Amino acid sequence: MKHIDEGILTLDAQLKIQNGYSNYLDRLFGKAPGELEQVPILELLFPAESEHASHMPVVRDILTTCFGEDVLSWNLNQSHLPSEIVLHEKNLSLYWCRVSHRKI
How far apart are CA 80 and CA 22, in angstroms? Predict the structure, then answer.
């Protein structure tokens, strides 16, 4: 994750960034290494002054509703998540992926 030029991260149930995210994420948001751990992702992606701030409630509801649920819930809701935003004059492409740590 140190040499990947993409902002890759995982979230916990409170939608906070977890340890082990890509170093590029720090550069993307202008933060010191490790500073983004436990930061709520929605505050970074959809700040109140951004043109995409109205996406925050929908994204929050989808992610919190699907968190910990079966894959069907994710499959039905993922298409409603934004795939592109403009943030601080940067065009960002967003790819949302469900990752499960459940033991089968």
Answer: 25
| Single pTM value for the model | 0.86
Tens digit of each residue's pLDDT (9 = 90 or more) over 45-67: 999 888 889 999 999 999 999 99
Q: Match 């740590």 to its residue by tokens.
A: 101
Instruction: Name the token pair of 92.
Output: 């960002």
Q: Say if residues 44 and 35 touch (Cβ distance below 8 Å).
A: no
Distance in angstroms (rounded) separating the CA atoms of residues 28 and 48 = 18
Whether the Cβ atoms of residue 10 and residue 21 lie closer than 8 Å to each other:
yes
Rounded-to-integer distance, Cα 49 and Cα 27, Å: 21
Residue 68's region, left for phi above 0, alpha for psi from -120 to 50, else beta, is: left
Contact predicate 13/67, CB 8 Å? yes
Residue 40 DSSP class: B
